[in-house]
Write a structure and sequence with these properties.
Helix content: under 10%
Number of helices: 1
Distance between the termini: 27 Å
Structural class: mainly beta
Low-confidence stretches: 2-42
Mean pLDDT: 87
Radius of gyration: 19 Å
Largest sheet: 5 strands, antiparallel
Shape: globular
């Protein structure tokens, strides 16, 4: 997201203004389904097929809400699990605040489909990472809470026994702050080794800065599917005045991963469009990133673009910016067969846009508004079920999760909405993971 005012003031004012135009979120009803209706005892929704997780980012105590996922895609709330850390309480403008995976890799975006899974969760308010083991039928068991090695962890990735966490560099001063990687310390990444049982061991001297631009707007960190390159997006870097409408801002920073787990040469690529934010990969290793194009100050300019990632960490543009008509496009997922991509736009009408995805990184807009009317302003993180048959989309203002069935043609059919977190005028809830 891009705001005309810096920090928490901008987020609060824009969020409150947005909420003023929206109806107050309702208690569970026929539209927002009570968990009792999802018990599945009568077999209406088939067997338990997976789980969905959402993070509160609560400064009073971060927690993860878990849902059983049935074969039909419908959800049944399990319980809320404290992470042992605290959230920041404000919107962090990031993707992959928590991920599912194990020492080998991630369930998404690296398409790891294995029975043993862990949930890795960032605690932005207490500078720590929580690891949960995923139990049968979706429950969570705490493995450990590990200091993250930096200030305000906001995104995390794991692959080939390595975990890297992105730190925004902001320091918590007892107040809710959302400066979005533009004040405080320089954003950085820090590495850990991941054991088979989910324990983390810090890698000495693994911390590296990104572009070293003080107006970074750092958004996401992820390994390529083969684990050889670490990729980080900076949506504001390169812009001389991040408080106004911009020209050509945004970097993609890459590091080749060395055998000892530390990072090699840093490479900085000027993004194809403006404001690279959330991203994902297909199985061929092509990179697909959303583009904000000035966020709230760039109405209807949201886009996505594709790149090939070379072995030396350099990027080759594979697609121009493909605009979708949304405002502030920020999150991206791709179906496991690599055919379709879905991107959410936070501001404006709030929407999910669908793309045709090509193996070499090409993109073609399929449907600018693939969603139905249930998606509106505040549409943020999205995640696909392990079989890519269902899409789960978080609204960070309302604290709700919308559930859609993904058709063979890439179309979306609305199924239900569940109230995962308390509504927040600061859009605090962030992060969603599914399998």
């Amino acid at each position: 997201m891009r705001f005309a005012l810096p920090g928490a003031t901008a987020v609060a004012l824009l969020a409150l203004a947005a909420c003023a135009d929206q109806p107050t979120p309702l208690a569970p009803s026929s539209d927002i389904t009570a968990s009792a209706a999802r018990s599945g005892a009568n077999g209406r929704h088939g067997k338990v097929a997976g789980a969905v997780y959402s993070m509160s980012n609560d400064p009073a105590g971060n927690h993860v809400v878990a849902y059983r996922r049935f074969e039909s895609g419908h959800l049944d709330r399990l319980e809320s699990y404290p992470t042992g850390g605290t959230g920041s309480g404000g919107f962090e403008d990031t993707a992959n605040g928590m991920i599912l995976g194990n020492a080998r890799g991630e369930s998404s975006p690296n398409n790891l489909n294995e029975s043993e899974k862990f949930l890795f969760v960032t605690n932005a308010g207490s500078n720590s990472i929580t690891v949960f083991k995923v139990m049968p039928k979706g429950g969570l068991k705490l493995v450990e809470v590990q200091p993250s090695g930096g200030e305000k962890p906001v995104s995390v990735t794991v692959n080939h026994g390595l975990l890297y966490v992105l730190h925004s560099g902001e320091f918590m001063d007892g107040e809710i702050t959302t400066p979005n990687c533009t004040t405080g310390n320089l954003p950085s990444v820090t590495g850990f080794r991941v054991s088979a049982n989910g324990h983390l061991e810090p890698i000495p001297n693994s911390t590296r800065h990104l572009s070293e631009d003080h107006h970074s707007g750092c958004a996401q960190v992820s390994f390529t599917p083969n684990g050889r390159v670490l990729v980080v997006t900076e949506r504001l870097a390169g812009d001389e005045d991040p408080t106004s409408a911009a020209g050509d801002e945004g970097y993609i920073v890459t590091f080749v991963v060395k055998e000892d787990g530390r990072l090699g040469q840093r490479r900085i690529t000027d993004a194809t469009g403006q404001g690279p934010f959330g991203f994902t990969f297909n199985k061929q290793g092509a990179l697909f990133t959303t583009e904000q194009f000035d966020g709230s100050m760039g109405p209807n300019q949201g886009a996505a673009a594709g790149y090939m990632v070379n072995d030396d960490g350099t990027l080759t543009p594979a697609s121009p910016s493909v605009h979708n008509g949304g405002t502030d496009t920020c999150w991206f997922v791709i179906t496991d067969d690599g055919k379709y991509g879905f991107a959410t736009s936070f501001f404006g009408d709030g929407r999910i846009s669908s793309y045709l995805v090509k193996p070499n990184g090409g993109l073609e807009l399929l449907n600018a508004t693939a969603n139905t009317d249930q998606v509106d302003q505040g549409a943020s993180d999205i995640s696909l079920s392990e079989d890519s048959r269902y899409l789960y989309q978080l609204n960070s203002f309302k604290g709700t999760i919308n559930v859609f069935r993904v058709g063979n043609d890439g179309g979306l059919t609305y199924l239900e909405t569940v109230q995962a977190q308390a509504p927040s005028p600061l859009a605090a809830p962030l992060g969603i993971s599914a399998f």
